[in-house]
Amino acid sequence: MDKKILIVAESIDVEDSSGTKGRVALIKNLKQIGFNVKVFHYTRKDIQLEEIPCKAIKENRNSFLFYLSRFERLLRLKLKLDFHIPLEKLFGFSFTLYNDRNSIIDELKGSEELDSDLIITLSKGGSFRPHHALLKMPELHHKWLAYIHDPYPAHLYPRPFAWVEAGYFQKWKFIHDISKNAAYSAFPSKLLMEWMGSYFPNFLKTGYIIPHQLFDSKTEGIELPEFFNPDNFNLLHAGTLLDPRNPKSLVRAFEKFLKRNSNARGHSKLIFLGGKNVFSSWLEDYEKHLKELKVSESYISFDKVRKMQQNAAVNIILEAKSEISPFLPGKFPHCVQADKPILLLGPKLSESKRLLGEDYRYWSEIDDEDKIADIIESLYLNWKNYQGTEGLNRTDLINYLSTPYLREVLGKIQSSQP
């Protein structure tokens, strides 16, 4: 396969977010299935991926938009005059984003890589900078694949995540224009494609599902933290707790499990990894009287987290209390790859549950403490009976989240190209 793919990515620094980890995994797997892959990225530091040419796009620091953005920042930081919201209401986006978009366009224009057979834009968070750039380059729209990783704009998120942000109409029009102009679109989940397609119907015509990807990552020689004993019954939640992802019922259910199984106290732990969040104070207070609870808020590297996932008894995916969760969590592939049972807490209508299956037994709504306690007890008894060796055993998901399914999707895209 000698087809050329140009990736225009917001970031390829796997330490900056779970989203970037997924984008880098996709880039590596595109290379693995035989595509000639090159990457332009706006990480703004020199990062290279093995056997994949990568070019860091430089920020244009000598433009009118750049000086406007710095002037606005100076007013905000020094004089406490915040014009950020009024400006976004007026222009839709920040001066910084517009300057970043133009910086990407300037780097792409005239590049020999524009003769690639397919150009894929990958972003993170709510910025979509590469998408902004490609939208302004109509000569490339016929071979543009826009990867939409989350609902956008913010008011199109399902409850309780939805909120109306400044410049919401311009942001809505931005996604509408992508849906009309990108020859192809891709989403990490089926539910997300259907969700966005309900607002922008053209996505249902151009859309493909490309889930967050697995890739081989060596963890030999990486030391586990002192608080993590791989011989224990460890329930591990890796990732930041956003406001709607409330862990309180899980913690209380874990405590109920311990009260019912006092023999488990000496070798059981519920572990939360991630940065400071709205639940930090509550978790820290609870940790004082529940010694089997461990909250680590210091930074832990991606490779070390993966090592812990591989050595946990149970990996936890915690979603919001909602009617639907169309997101595929960035850590879902890592949890599948770890081949350990997954404790899934979230709505019945979710992409994670769709993939694990309607009858998946280790699932509960986020606030059903009694059911969660029962599931933890069942997981514990299985862990004891199998001496910690019970696996998830889902080769179908391994294939879906890696090169076999990715090759199939890219084959369909290729066959549809003129």
Instruction: Say what the CATH topology of the largest domain is.
Output: Rossmann fold
Overall mean pLDDT stands at 92
Radius of gyration: 22 Å
Number of helices: 16
Uncertain residue segments: none
Which strands sit side by side, in order, in the main sheet? 3-2-1-4-5-6-7
The percentage of residues in β strands lies in 5-15%
End-to-end gap? 18 Å
- State the CATH superfamily name of the largest domain: Glycogen Phosphorylase B
Short synopsis of the structure:
This is UDP-glycosyltransferase. 41% of the residues lie in helices and 14% in strands.
Summarize the structure in words.
This is UDP-glycosyltransferase. This protein is α/β, with parallel strands linked by helices and 418 residues long. It has two domains: 192 residues, Glycogen Phosphorylase B (Rossmann fold), CATH 3.40.50.2000; 165 residues, 3-Layer(aba) Sandwich (Rossmann fold), CATH 3.40.50.2000. It has 16 helices and 13 strands. It has a seven-stranded parallel sheet, sandwiched between helices. It has a six-stranded parallel sheet with strand order 10-9-8-11-12-13, sandwiched between helices. The longest helix has 17 residues. It is globular and about 65 Å long. The protein starts with a strand and ends with a helix.
